[in-house]
Amino acid sequence: GAPDTRTPTGAETGVPKIAKGQQGAYLTTANGARLRDTDHSLKAGPRGPVLLQDHHLREKIMHFDHERIPERVVHARGAGAHGVFVANGAAEKVTRAGFLKKGRETPVFVRFSTVLGSRGSADTVRDTRGFATKFYTDEGTFDLVGNNMPVFFIQDAIKFPDIIHAGKPHPDREIPQAQSAHDTFWDFVSLHTEAQHHTIWNMSDRGIPRSYRTMEGFGVHTFRLVDDAGATVLVKFHWKPKLGVHSLEWEEAQLINGIDPDFHRRDLYDAIEAGAYPEWELGIQVFPDTPEETFAGIDLLDPTKIVPEELAPVQPIGTLTLNRTPRNFFAETEQVAFHLGHLPPGIDVTNDPLLQGRLFSYLDTQLTRLGGPNFPQIPINRPHADVNDMLRDGFHQQAVHAGVAPYRPNSLDGGNPFPAGDREHAFVDVPVTVAEAPKVRAAPASFDDHFSQVRLFWTSMSPVEKEHIVRAYTFELGKCYHQAIKERQLQCLANIDPVLCEQVATGLGLPAPQPTVPLAEVQPSPALSQVGREWPAD
Ligand code: HEM
């Protein structure tokens, strides 16, 4: 039959898949010459030596020697799946993005991951989970590169190498790994106290999900939506799992790590193969786009803060269903390249300094990880929208571009025009006013509150969730060698809640310190507890 020319996501490319050759009637070299024998090297007699002229041996070994590409610098371990996103139209009034119009169906690829472990690490470790979604919209790809926790450790991307160096294995022994990167991790988060909010989420049941299928997802940052008239709102994205939010008990997580280190990966694939397609509702919290970029006194540019759902309900805008496992892990899950700058018309960024730094980091790291600048041409990364990008050449160029050189203005071949009417379908950078201010390496004063929302989280937990949090802090801090680090983290816990501090201090056999900042007055937010978190009602 005709060769298969579609990408793994179903996009038509016109280019036959080379992989087809691996299913042919006979074996060949990479150049297509039929092989007589691929089991013996060419030797001077059956007892050798092997001849340097054995071009088949050299091709086979050369290719094998280069099978590995660098693993991701973070989020190295992951599992992916294909699916579809169906919009319910509720976002139409706030964004011009076509894929959010009522009834639109958009193919997606989702990759779930742990953050700190390497590619071969276990699934059920205590860690944040990545939840990255590629929407192949007909107006260009939209990547929502989120996590299963709504806040992040740092407020400024310039601190990302610091937090990751503190959490990854030590340079000398290459231990420890995952969240229990004890002395260095606790040293960093107790000194850099803006990390305390994300840390308590890690120490809670959210740090050991039951399944990828039972995790919430969050875009974390505030984004800006723009409608046809140019009006804007600020939003935060939320994924809510149909199966509700569920976690493992710590002891379960430990046993599963030993018995089945691929537990989450297997669970995702088995569910899809069995037809139990995982589903999430995508929702947005919507805030007025005011010059202050705050809501209810919360700075929307601070990625260590949430906006409680009681203050801004999550409004459902569509449903994601994962319904197909990858055919080839390397081609799809490993080579997929997410990037926050993949934005269709109708969705724009804000000045969140963490988001701004990420806009640089993803493309930059993928240049190395995927071997040059042409990774958008890898099948899993190809947009479903038409591409006419004026880029040329480079390592691993797959396209054979015709015509004169791509430059503008250009009178020779029509010159890469913007046809009449095209601009109204184009991406528009929202012309947000930039403050007239001196250049400074500084953060706004509103970023200084590092404890009130940590207290909000703790206060919102049920008794059993609090017990799990105390046990997690006690276990993880108990692994530190340096007493001064344990004491400094106990000081942070005292600033969050005296009962939390007292219980962890007792477990560690240390005295509980007094708070050094006034304890915040907070009303519990029931939506932060996992208890009763089920599929949102219609
Ligand atoms: C990878 C989420 C902050 C740099 C990832 C992935 C996710 C993610 C889900 C895995 C993508 C995949 O499956 O391929 C987040 C979230 C953040 C955050 C939610 C904060 C809100 C940052 C920051 C930086 C950064 C601040 C750097 C300044 C990276 C890099 C990768 C990565 C370099 C590897 C990408 C690749 O090799 O393809 N992140 N991240 N991230 N992240 Fe982040």
Please give a quick description of this structure.
The chain is an alpha+beta fold and 538 residues long. It has helices at 55-65, 160-167, 182-191, 196-203, 250-259, 263-273, 330-334, 353-369, 452-460, 463-478, 483-496, 498-508; strands at 78-87, 105-114, 129-137, 140-147, 217-218, 223-226, 232-241, 279-288, 294-295, 298-299, 315-324, 347-348.
Features:
metal-binding; binds protoporphyrin IX containing FE; hydrogen peroxide; 10-stranded antiparallel sheet; 538 residues; alpha+beta
Q: What compounds are bound to the protein?
A: protoporphyrin IX containing FE
What string, H for helix and E for strand, traces the elements in order? Answer: HEEEEHHHEEEHHEEEEHEHHHHH
Strand content: 5-15%
Radius of gyration over all CA atoms, rounded? 26 Å
Mean pLDDT: 93
- Share of helix, binned: 10-25%
Number of strands: 12
Instruction: Note the total helix count.
Output: 12
Distance between the termini: 47 Å
Overall spatial form: globular
Enzyme class: oxidoreductase
Domain Catalase core: 28-416
Catalytic activity: 2 H2O2 = O2 + 2 H2O
Keywords: Heme, Hydrogen peroxide, Iron, Metal-binding, Oxidoreductase, Peroxidase
Structural summary, described in words:
The chain has 538 residues and is an alpha+beta fold. 24% of the residues lie in helices and 15% in strands. The chain has helices spanning 55-65, 160-167, 182-191, 196-203, 250-259, 263-273, 330-334, 353-369, 452-460, 463-478, 483-496, 498-508, and strands at 78-87, 105-114, 129-137, 140-147, 217-218, 223-226, 232-241, 279-288, 294-295, 298-299, 315-324, 347-348. Helix 10 packs across helix 12. The longest helix is centred in the C-terminal third of the chain and has 17 residues, at 353-369. It is globular and about 80 Å long. The structure holds protoporphyrin IX containing FE. The site of protoporphyrin IX containing FE has 29 residues, from strand 2, strand 3, strand 4 and helix 8.
